[in-house]
Design brief:
Strand 2 (87-97) and strand 3 (103-109) form a beta hairpin. With 158 residues, this protein is α+β, with helices and mostly antiparallel strands. Strands 3-2-7 form a 3-stranded antiparallel β-sheet. It has helices spanning 2-14, 16-19, 26-35, 57-78, 112-117, 121-128, and strands at residues 47-48, 87-97, 103-109, 135-136, 138-140, 143-145, 147-157. The longest helix is centred in the middle third of the chain and has 22 residues, at 57-78. It folds into 2 domains: 2-35; 47-157.
Length: 158
């Protein structure tokens, strides 16, 4: 009987830990939440004023890319570019849209021949982005975020 009482008393004292609630601190909760994010995708693509009617994510993306491409193409059409050799190149422009909606070029990748024939290409591309409609930044979890894009542009000058 004493042995049974001792076992019951032992179980009684050590079973209290079973009912103890574990507290989670805010840092642990934050770290778990951050693991669930996909940092390479945004909830809403950056959009221009003329793209506000695009509700669908893909439509918004297409409108954003089309607006920039059209604007750059029209600007190049107004430039009087003279070259000594035919230039056929795909220029890759790395664009950065800040969380305040400012667009800037971070890098321009071209072939060496293109650089030789068009030494002012960087300044022409930078000026081509002037006059774009108002740009709204991308949204991730209801926050405005900075985003980066690579835009390929086919350049052909005869």
């Amino acid at each position: 009987m004493r042995y049974l009482a001792f076992v019951l008393l032992f179980c009684f004292f050590y079973s209290c830990n079973y009912y103890e609630k574990k507290k989670l601190d805010s840092d642990t909760i934050l770290m778990e939440e951050l693991k669930t994010f996909n940092w390479n995708e945004v909830d809403r693509y950056p959009n221009f004023e003329n793209c506000e009617n695009s509700i669908d994510f893909q439509d918004s993306k297409n409108c954003f890319e089309q607006t920039i491409t059209t604007h750059i193409s029209e600007y190049f059409g107004t430039q009087n570019i003279i070259v000594s050799q035919t230039v056929k190149d795909t220029i890759r422009i790395d664009l950065l849209v800040s969380n305040s909606g400012e667009l800037q070029i971070s890098k321009i990748q071209t072939q060496e021949l293109t650089r030789e024939q068009l030494p002012l290409l960087d300044s022409i591309l930078t000026r081509s982005l002037e006059g774009l409609p108002k740009l709204y930044p991308a949204i991730k979890r209801s926050q405005q975020v900075q985003t980066a894009f690579q835009l390929p542009i086919i350049l052909r000058v005869d």
